[in-house]
Amino acid sequence: MKRIYKKSLAIVLALVTVLNMAGCALKPGTPQESGEPQVSGEPQVSGEPQASGEPQVSGEPQVSGEPGESGSLFGTEYASWVNSDIQEWVKQIGEADARDDFHLHVNRDWMVSTTIPDGYSSYDPITERALQVDSQLMDILENPEKETDPELIHDQELVQKYYTMWLDWDARNKLDVSALKELLDPLMKVQSLDELTDYLSMPRTVISATELAQCDVSMDWNNADYYAVYVAPVDLIFGDSMYYGYMEESDALAEPYYNEVIRHILVKLGYSDEEATEVLKSCFAFEKDISDYIMTTEEESARDAVEKENNPRTLEQLEAEAGDFPIRKILEAYGAENSDNYILLQPDWLAAMDVLYDEDYVEHLRDYLICYTVQDYATLLDRETYDIYYKVINGISGAVGTKSDQKSATEAVDDFLPSQLGRLYSDKYVSDETQKEVADITKEIMDEYRIMLSEETFLTEDTRKEAIRKLDSLALRIAKPGKWEDDSELNFAGSKEGGNLISAQDEVGAFWVKRMQSRINQKVDRDLWTSRVQQVNAFYDPSQNSITLCGGILGGSLYNPDMSREELFANVGDTIAHEISHAFDTTGCQFDEKGNLRNWWTQQDQTAFAARADKLAAYYDNIEPFMDVNCVGSQIEGEAIADLVAMKILLRIAGKDKNFDYDKFFRAFAQTWRTITTARSEFYALSQDTHPLPYLRVNCVVQQFDEFYETFGVKKGDGMYLAPEDRLEVW
Ligand SMILES: [Zn+2]
Predict the structure, then answer these.
(1) Tens digits of per-residue pLDDT, 401-424?
(2) Fewer CB in a 10 Å sphere around the end CB: N or C, the chain?
(3) What is the pLDDT of residues 323-336, one digit of tens each?
(4) Distance from Cα 238 to the centre of ligand 1, integer Å
(5) Does any domain span residue 194?
(6) Each residue of 488-534: pLDDT tens digit?
(7) 27 CA to centre of ligand 1 in angstroms
């Protein structure tokens, strides 16, 4: 099957934040979703799909052949399921039998009768729950309780200050872009390489603006008990470096994100329209040049990605590789010049920076920094800019309607003060009973994993033992942390003290940079969470060998204590089993029980595992969610393996229960993945998300298991039928 989608994507480009990517997303080492605010780094966004050469992303689903007919133009090699995540398409097709398209059969009524909420481009149980959590967070901010605990009093003060400032449009309009102008002033004056180096060496650049190298302190891949400093490339405005291979200057300039959002702010900063065009062109020139040396999303999710990214260095070695590029000065600005261990994620990028850091190239570097910083602040300026930003973002994602200001302000507080809002949330909404019940289910699932691993015939005994040791060392982070990091020193000026959203960024950013510095060369405290409690998500973190089920995901239709066992299994049970399996997937198996990057597999076992994973990747490669546009098995194999083994574990446990209601379980499972989305949003997910598309997370999973065939009487010729020899089994 062809994989022509790469070419088409050159035109489609990325759209990031507005899309809700459900499911775990952790990639080892890349700075994780942490309890810390993102000091810089608003979404990279981009533009609209255009007509020619692009796969069909809207209009009628073109289905050829009857369900079950092989070789359909659209569906899979084995079955002709229509992509039933796209509401527009579902409305045009009728009901389906459980034996032909299980996902559509269970979810069609819901999919045709549900509406995507204002300001969103998709809707699913995760989004439904996220909206509930948002309301809870908004309630915390709108109706602050009188706290008595000193930590909560402090949290309450900070979140209130920021929330109030965010909503104070009079003050924001009056300030306009003056605070941003003051931040960028030293950069806008840069004319020479020396001046640029001086600018990059300023601590404020690191704290509040964009740097030419990113630095993060995280668990050392090579010694998981200690922290290391990770040095990473810059982010690109259009996200995936792959796009730049196909994009020309005129494409970039025509993108609404470039042309409307960034240009608008540049003009407000004092550039004429012509000058703004020159700055945008010059920025794009740097992005295009450097993109050749930055890994694509597909490369970053490949099996060998961590191996390629694990490049331990000393500062002297970094300096030697960076040549003219002042990496030492940038690390000094971060206060990260004394680390015993650095990990250079992408050596090709650093070598390229040596070449580009040249007197003749200064303006491109400067203009990239201006544009990137400008877009980072687009939501923190005046009302007009904010409205332009959201109009463009909605245009990109296909979202309609707008979020209320209170909701947007809540999201802004959540981004900026995640630990503080999280502690208030945890105190009010995450109960000890929930924590205990979910911990019990987790233990039950781990026990079954232990049995499954011990029975695994394709592994040699040593590898089996290592796998069980890894399972037994798994750190469980369920519902809420037992320990919070001291943040009593964190503070910033509110509007009464003359502060504004940008000065708050300076003060809070400085606190977190200092916190980051304090970890250098220190032992990792494994009791600390690296993710937000209030998040509706769950993860496996290979660098700590831990699973985290955030408090946010444990509620609504995803979890409640009155659920039947079948429903619990289909929801939280599936999530737990999925996350644990990441300890043993193609990335997870490269890390040992402590989180060290250490291969504990024999060559023979690795080969056997790779053969199973290859079969799985090839199976997904054969699926066509859009006409002539296939899934990329290698991009999603880690998540697809996790989906598969989660189902296997749950069915093994179910098999021990005589009264287990499989019909109820499979239906509840299909419901957890029901999604309605715009074609545009779905297309983006296909190209960028490392998870299979939602309808495939149902159909591709259940069709691998005998229990499904038995429960629904699936036979050869049915759309859900997969010949036994074609079925997948990784674990
Ligand atoms: Zn996952």
Answers:
(1) 778 999 999 999 999 999 999 999
(2) N
(3) 999 999 999 999 99
(4) 25
(5) yes
(6) 999 999 999 999 999 999 999 999 999 999 999 999 998 889 889 99
(7) 10
Rg from Cα positions in the chain? 25
d(CA 493, CA 486): 20
Q: Is residue 221 part of a domain?
A: yes
Q: How far is the CA of 472 from the centre of ligand 1 (A)?
A: 20
pLDDT higher than 60, residue 67: no
26 alpha carbon – ligand 1 mean position (Å): 8
Does any domain span residue 494?
no
- Provide the token pair at 63: 């289905």
The DSSP line for 537-587 is -EEEETTTTEEEEEGGGSSTTT--TT--HHHHIIIIIHHHHHHHHGGGSTT
Work out the burial of residue 132: count CB atoms within 10 Å of its CB; fewer than 13 is exposed, 13-18 middle, 19 or more buried: middle
Indicate the pairing of strand 214-220 with strand 342-344: unpaired
DSSP character at residue 76: E
The H-assigned helical ranges of 2-42 are 5-12
- What is the domain count for the chain? 1
- Asked if the structure places residue 643 within a domain, the reply is no
Task: Give the C-alpha separation, 133 to 112, whole Å.
Answer: 25
Distance (angstroms) between ligand 1 centre and the Cα of 471 equals: 16
How many angstroms is it from 724 CA to the middle of ligand 1?
Answer: 26
Distance from C-alpha of 322 to C-alpha of 324, rounded to nearest angstrom: 6
Q: How far apart are CA 441 and CA 383, in angstroms?
A: 48
State whether residue 289 is helix, strand or coil: helix
Strand partners of residue 227: 219
Domain membership of residue 344 as a residue range: 177-381
Residue 15 has pLDDT above 60, yes or no: no
The rounded distance, in Å, linking the Cα atoms of 246 and 267 is 28
The environment of the single-atom ion ligand 1, i.e. residues with CB closer than 5 A, is 24, 639, 642
pLDDT tens for each residue of 275-315: 999 999 999 999 999 999 999 988 887 878 999 999 999 99
- The answer to whether residue 10 scores a pLDDT higher than 60 is no
> How far, in Å, is the centroid of ligand 1 from the Cα of 352?
33
- Report the 10 Å Cβ neighbour count for 686: 25
Side chain identity, residue 438: V
3-state helix, strand, coil in the chain (%, to 5): 55, 5, 40
